[in-house]
Amino acid sequence: MGYQLELRHFNYFLAVAEELHYRKAAEKLCISQPGLSRQIKQMEEILDVKLFVRSKKKVALTAAGEYLKGEMEFILNHLDVTKKQLKHISDGNFGEVRIGFLGSAMQEVIPDLLIGLKENFPGIKSSLEELSNTAQMNAIMRDKLDMGFVRMARVPDGVNIQPVYTDTFSVVLPELYPMLTREFKDVGQLAEENFILFAQDYSPLYYDTVMSICEDAGFTPKVSHKSVHAQTIFKLVENNLGIAIVPTSLQYGFQMKVKFIELRNIPQRAILSVVWKEDNRNPALRHCINLLLNRSKLGK
């Protein structure tokens, strides 16, 4: 046949795979719909596989198409990252480290890391994105992040995880809650209150740990609200819509009418870990990880 696969074929394929609509994909690519159809057909002939199932009503990926979509997203993203890293290195820098994080990491760990990078490796650029545990892990596996700060007990094969900060938990109460700090003995005193928690799918380990704190005190909490943002949780507490249990470090950086009571006499701790993929080839990542682990705080 004489045809060879070119990068444009994969870009065309991804456009159709994402849109699942030839006209929309063609418009996105600024080419004609018949031309796009010909390119996809040519690609299928070269690969000798069917990538799409077409009907008058819809376009769907085959099993082979689903596999190729995942692989090409990774490969094309890696090419894009490589181009950016080349530019950084050409400019005399080490490159860029893309960092995902939970909000609580911004209170203690990330500022220290960024300061350390600036002092020790000024040629390393960094970018930050606040994401849930699951979103960070997905991005790391797909090479869209280099490292993340998560609260997880387990990670997929091929991913390293190291604790970097151990925190206590604190109860969050409205500022005028009718209990003085010195009157607080244990969480069991709050058994009848409504609880406001971080959503379970945002941080399953946190959710399960808070449940265990309450269960150890002899009750199952009544969860009235869930959120993925600390500020939202604190605002709900401030307005007497419930109480919360959060990692103690989250109390910093918010000026709200709530009070915190640290739970020092319980075994549960909020452990923040750094995660990164073992085969990540970003030359700047190793400097970043080594610096972080050397500066990490494994206790208060």
Automatic annotation (TrEMBL):
It comes from the Bacteria. GO terms for cellular component: protein-DNA complex. Keywords: DNA-binding, Transcription, Transcription regulation. InterPro entries: LysR_HTH_N, LysR_subst-bd, WH-like_DNA-bd_sf, WH_DNA-bd_sf. Residues 5-62 form the HTH lysR-type domain. GO terms for molecular function: DNA binding; DNA-binding transcription factor activity. Belongs to the LysR transcriptional regulatory family. This is LysR family transcriptional regulator. It comes from Arenibacter aquaticus.
